[in-house]
Design a protein that fits this description.
Shape: elongated
Structural class: alpha/beta
Distance between the termini: 26 Å
Number of strands: 17
Number of helices: 19
């Protein structure tokens, strides 16, 4: 269940299905509160002073249950009513069951209790919240964030985050741990909301797995363990031709490094044959840097020539754009690939900048296309603002993928991979140390290599993102987020593939 990501509407359907099969909503709330209580007991065996900040709806009801259970264990518990008395019947029932030993205060007088708390539990808004946190709540949330000694927990999703989009329009509770129920929500993995949730754990409230599986789910999170079955053991009788021919049309004078990083990443990702098409002037630089590759040399004033067109024809996948530049000859090379490629086409960096004025060219190829834009490139491609993109990164990627029939890899924290079919994946690996020039070239090389080895394009796209992030996590562990380099990612790829191979 943990890899499935469900929207608010889907969550309501799942709960309704559970209720129709004998699990009452009241029991779901009881189980949710118990889940929060158990998680706190694991992490804070002696929690000290607990503050449970509750809204008037069912999320607040979950908080009332947790408060009751914690008080029964002897904890000193204070409940803050952020919206006055509970409004839903379930929340009222949970409120009435709380013991008299629990202190109940209104948010206007809660400042001192916030400062003194050792644990602060946010149970104000759940998955139905949308819009902006009411301004009257902002001072208390800011004060909670200032209490650095306290352990902060959110119930289901951090209050102030929008479930389905991961957007945060104003203030938001900043949690160390989020306990979400039944299945992951988009806000748990999509930024910026995911940045407020801390560690998110999925806990069950009694809904049977078959009720979840009955509901179509097109969005999942990507974990390294999930992609291992996509990599069969290599054939003992295999040869270089068995593992694909990748053509890279990358690099230009002044930007050879991007091509080198992409090439080395591709080779470390198992491709059998790597052909790099470059201008003659780059050959003395590239040949010693990537001795495993073969080269197709071209004259920029005559590109694309017969040699390049022949290389496109023979390739099982093409990667175009890393360091290519945007000169007129580069535009002709991109057009040649879109018009002639038989295998999957991966478009990155300058290829996307070239296509920004004419994105309709993405509809030309008969072969599958994967694009790997960072947010700025995505905005140039779809003509939207950065604010519009951040408001709904999931929908941005999905709409572009469906409109232009391309697999869209919208890079960033929690990279989103969307297929034209509507299937979507959200990556869970990686860290801020990867935010350095050249990291995208490494990802492009991995993606091209997996496509060349005849992996299904959508699977190749999200597997490459996951592998790339996993390599980044290994680098951060060994070298620090500050000190790691994109070239270090390449050297960690064998370690990631050892994990995939189960060694």
């Amino acid at each position: 269940m943990e890899h499935r990501i469900v929207t608010a509407a889907q969550m309501k359907q799942i709960e309704a299905s559970g209720a129709a099969h004998g699990l009452s909503y009241r029991q779901m709330m009881e189980n949710a509160g118990q889940a929060v209580w158990r998680e706190l007991a694991l992490r804070c065996p002696q929690p000290g002073r607990l503050l449970v900040v509750c809204g008037k709806g069912n999320n607040g009801g979950d908080g009332f249950v947790a408060a009751r259970l914690l008080a029964a264990e002897g904890a000193k518990v204070t409940v803050v009513l952020m919206q006055g008395a509970p409004a839903s019947d379930l929340a009222k029932q949970a409120y009435d069951k709380m013991s008299r030993g629990i202190e109940i205060i209104m948010y206007r007088t809660a400042g001192g209790a916030v400062d003194a708390a050792d644990v602060i539990i946010d149970a104000v808004f759940g998955f139905s919240f949308h819009g902006r946190l009411p301004s009257v709540m902002e001072p208390l949330f800011a004060r909670a964030a200032e209490n650095k000694k306290a352990f902060h927990i959110s119930v289901d999703i951090p209050s102030g985050a929008v479930c389905d989009t991961g957007a945060v329009e104003g203030a938001c509770f900043k949690a160390d741990l989020t306990v979400t129920f039944t299945a992951m929500k988009p806000a748990g993995v999509v930024y910026p909301a995911a940045g407020f949730g801390g560690m998110t754990v999925v806990r069950q409230v009694g809904i049977k797995e078959e009720h979840l599986e009955m509901l179509p789910c097109d969005t999942e999170s990507v974990l390294l363990g999930n992609i291992c079955p996509l990599f069969p053991k290599r054939d003992p009788e295999g040869h270089k031709g068995t593992y694909g021919r990748l053509l890279m049309i990358c690099g230009s004078v002044g930007m050879a490094g991007a091509c080198i990083m992409a090439a080395r990443a591709a080779l470390r990702s198992g491709v059998g044959l790597l052909n790099i098409a470059i201008p003659h002037a780059l050959y003395p630089i590239l040949a010693p840097a990537v001795p495993e590759a073969i080269f197709t040399l071209y004259d920029p004033t005559e590109a694309p020539g017969e040699a390049v067109l022949d290389a496109i024809d023979k390739a099982s996948a093409c990667l175009v754009g890393c360091g290519l530049g945007t000169a007129p000859y580069a535009t002709k090379l991109v057009d040649a690939v879109l018009e002639n490629a038989h295998g999957t086409v991966v478009l990155d960096a300058d290829a996307l900048n070239i296509l920004a004025k004419t994105p309709e060219k993405l509809l030309v190829p008969q072969a599958p296309v994967i694009i790997t834009p960072h947010p700025g490139e995505m905005c140039r491609l779809n003509g939207r603002t950065m604010a519009e993109l951040r408001a709904d990164r999931l929908q941005t990627a999905r709409v572009f993928a469906q409109t232009y029939r391309v697999i869209t890899v919208l890079k960033g924290a929690g990279t989103i991979i969307a297929a034209p079919s509507g299937e979507t994946r959200v990556n869970t690996t990686g860290n801020p140390g990867m935010a350095k020039g050249g990291s995208g070239d490494v990802l492009a090389g991995i993606t091209g290599a997996l496509c060349a080895q005849n992996m299904q394009p959508f699977e190749a796209a999200y597997s490459a993102v996951c592998i790339h992030g996993a390599a980044g996590d290994l680098c951060a562990e060994a070298l620090s987020q500050h000190g790691m380099l994109p070239t270090d990612l390449i050297e960690k790829l064998p370690q990631v593939f050892l994990q995939i191979e189960g060694k």
